[in-house]
Amino acid sequence: MAESAPLRCLIVDDNEASRLMLAHLVGLTESLALVASLPDGVQALHFLQTQPPVDILLLDIEMPELTGLALIPLLPTPQPEIILVTTHRGFALEAFELHVTDYLVKPLDYARFRQAIDVAVRRRRAALTQAAAAALPVAAQNGTLDNWSELFVKVNNRLVKLNFDDVLYIEAMSMYSVLVMANHKYIVHATLKQLAERLPFAHFQRVHRSYIVNTRLIDSIEDNTLVVGPYEVPLAKSYQETLFNSIRSL
Fold it and tell me: Are 115 and 174 in contact (CB under 8 A)?
């Protein structure tokens, strides 16, 4: 997808009116896509640990069970850009010691909100661009391109060696991509376009603006759908001729 794809935004605030207000402001901002709006830090921690990465976190401070300031050190890495939104000014020093992006005091106006978001978006896109370069596959062993099957891919902060013979397909997810295997999925900080340009395998082909498929693992094709293992992947008309020619040449 394009580099300008909206960034994933999460709202965490125990006040329903505040959540609705923030959701409205996010809706006015083309650079953001709201993925969830949660009422407490405990739910937020579970969401951030189990769901695809969030780029920007709009976080209240005073919440029951787990405050916003207590939540920040528990966040998985790499952390999102964090913008604290609160009715109290007194937490500012402690907040910035936790390296938050900005500190907004309610009630908010859109100009101040947008100022904070623009800074967060610039920082996040720069970090994602850097991470994407590091996440792109590199050879796991010496040899020609045709002999490579194992590549290193950066997942979070680890270089993971994957056997690409076992990768069924790759799916775009905003500024990230998901490598789907039969029993596991890996989220990497690289766009589908970047992966398509870097993958050395001829049998990994673009079949849709959001999908690259391992053509060796296609089980069947029906209408505009590919069956790849236990999954179905859409096949766009603009990619059909290239795919069919490739299959005939295998």
Answer: no
Residues 6+ away with beta carbon under 8 Å from 24:
none
In angstroms, the CA 173 to CA 151 distance is 21
Average pLDDT, whole number, for the chain?
Answer: 86
CA distances from 30 to 117, 123, 188 (A): 11, 16, 24
Q: Residue 146 — pLDDT band, cuts 50, 70, 90?
A: very low
The answer for residues whose C-beta is within 8 angstroms of residue 30's C-beta and 6 or more apart is 6
Q: Nearest CA to 68 among 23, 98, 47, 110?
A: 98
Query: How far is the first Cα of the chain from the last one, in angstroms, to the nearest whole number?
Result: 28
Which one, of 179, 172, 80, 77, lies nearest residue 137 by Cα? 179
pLDDT at site 148: 55
- In which residue are the tokens 């913008």 written? 83
Of 183 and 171, the structure prediction assigns the larger pLDDT to 171
Q: What is the pTM of this model?
A: 0.62
> What is the spatial distance between Cα 174 and Cα 172, in angstroms, rounded to a whole number?
6
Domains of the chain (ranges, CATH numbers): 7-134 (3.40.50.2300), 143-249 (2.40.50.1020)
Residue 85: count other Cβ atoms within 10 Å of its Cβ. Answer: 24
Summarize the confidence of residues 194-214 as an average pLDDT: 87
